[in-house]
Amino acid sequence: MGVSVGSKSPKGSWRSFTRRKQVDSAHKNTKPLLAKELTVSHLIAIGVGSTIGAGVYVLVGTVAKEHSGPALAISFLIAGLAAGLSAFCYAELACRCPSAGSAYHYSYICLGEGVAWLIGWSLILEYTIGSAAVARGITPNIAPLFGGLDNLPFFLSRQHIPGIDIVVDPCAAILVFAVTGLLCLGIKKSTVVQGIVTSVNVCALLFVIVAGGYLGFKSGWVGYELPTGYFPFGVDGMLAGSATVFFAYVGFDAVASTAEEVKNPQRDLPLGIGASLFLCCGMYMLVSFVVVGLVPYYAIDPDTPISSAFAEHGMQWAAYIINAGASTALCSALMGGILPQPRILMAMARDGLVPPFLADINKHTQIPVKSTIITGLAAAVLAFSMEVSQLAGMVSVGTLLAFTMVAISVLILRYIPPNEVPVPPSLQDSVVEINVEYEEENISTSEDTKPLDVKGDFPIDYPLISKHLTIGNYINESNRRRVVGWTIAIICLGAFVLTYAASCLTFLSSVRYTLCGVGGTLLVSGFAFLTCIDQDDARHRFGHSGGFTCPFVPLLPTACILINSYLLVNLGAETWMRVSVWLAIGLLIYVFYGRTHSSLKDAIYVPISQEAET
């Protein structure tokens, strides 16, 4: 964690990867640079708009036909509960550390600069490719409104360039530029527009639920009257469907990225995250329940599941409403994809890890305009010139890594919250003087202290071993932080070994079972250890207090780490090879620029108790 008290961060040392910045305190009068304009309703619009993309209009057909069958609604419920674990962790950290940067900001405070850079760099990839992929999907969805792809205006239709063999999509680029311009007008104006667009999408989904429910009761829900029952692919198929639809819930983290612009973050951020996730889960379950009830799962068209289900019952005209809903869903998701990235770049620039101009705030709109323009330009170029669907798996890596680090940060915050803070190197002399004073006080105190007489000073039934030390005498305040830190690392290692062994079918059965046993033992042992010890009292004074606290710690963060590890190891070798190249580039940039320009490069670390005096 940083460096020792009174010493500078060594240049060219691995310690730069572990130096941590100070959490924002509620008692400091720091003037916010971003406009505090957002309320709960704005946050719900951002969360729902970023989460419910056009995927639900296609995903229900693919998952029902290949994995879940009539149990599709249960798959969405399980995936929603799994996403809720990460949402609980995000809610607590967003309340305690309400600054821009989301998972990058939390990782920098709890885990260190190296991990924070990894998360920030991964999120840049996630939002850039995700925004480009969403933009490329808008053209096929608006084409039916014009009578087909061939009837689109020339400046909107896709064109094939034979010399370089690429298909350009001007409509996607135009939409990205339009959304970027809208975001540059200010957070409140852009959020109001996103709320309106999201409302159109929600209305289309409500039409599907109400009209589909009427057709289902009229026809007798033929999709559920099958001899194969509700689980044609078994419970394993239903769980595989849950893993697939889990990514349909990604988007609520966009709410956390706007924490610095919320009027009352301690109250509104948990409500915004929870309400948006609850609404999305309810919508997904109702839509999937209706669709698989109208048509048998094996007869669903995987490309246009909802439209074809209504067409089976003579409502071909419903396709226009559904296509309008899908188009607005993509536009809202595009806004939700571009919105967080400028704030992450701004947070990284504030910390000195990327060029400082990315942290510039426009005086009139009070948003990072330069970062927003650069983000939009990068997404527009990708959307215009590349078919990014093959890179979509890379988006999941950034999301899952962020979810995992947020869960680990909650464990660190509860059991070993940072106990040192960085101060400017100009205070080196003050730090030395204070250290000398503390040493003299300790010496005088030890001389004046008389030996403890247990029989005379305490009643005979007074417990000499406190409650939180019952697991062993080797745990005391001097080594508690180190032991707990290693325990959290063992939990992460156990989760990885367990999920990797369970997912790798190329291993011999004996090897798989052995590795699963080892990983499970590490995971359960670490969890049991954290359960048996008390959480650190310093957590109550960490950051902004009085907000939401994550329940069932350490169970909930541990389960979150396990689920995210399973999804990460199942992304495929191709995805990991591509991500590895991106991360290697990021490591080079950090080593040759970020590490040497970091605002903590020459920082001196002092105990929190000495911060005010220093």
UniProtKB/TrEMBL annotation:
It is a multi-pass membrane protein. Residues 1-25 are annotated as: Disordered. It holds the Pfam family AA_permease_C. Residues 548-598 form the Cationic amino acid transporter C-terminal domain. The keyword Heme does not apply. Keywords: Membrane, Transmembrane, Transmembrane helix, Transport. It is found in: Membrane. Residues 1-13 have a biased composition (Low complexity). Its main location: membrane. GO terms for cellular component: membrane. The keyword Transmembrane applies. The chain crosses the membrane at residues 38-60, 72-91, 103-124, 166-185, 192-217, 237-259, 271-297, 317-339, 367-385, 391-413, 483-508, 514-533, 545-569, 575-593. GO terms for molecular function: amino acid transmembrane transporter activity. InterPro entries: AA/rel_permease1, CAT_C. Belongs to the amino acid-polyamine-organocation (APC) superfamily. Cationic amino acid transporter (CAT) (TC 2.A.3.3) family. This is Cationic amino acid transporter 2, vacuolar-like isoform X1. The lineage of its organism: Eukaryota, Viridiplantae, Streptophyta, Embryophyta, Tracheophyta.
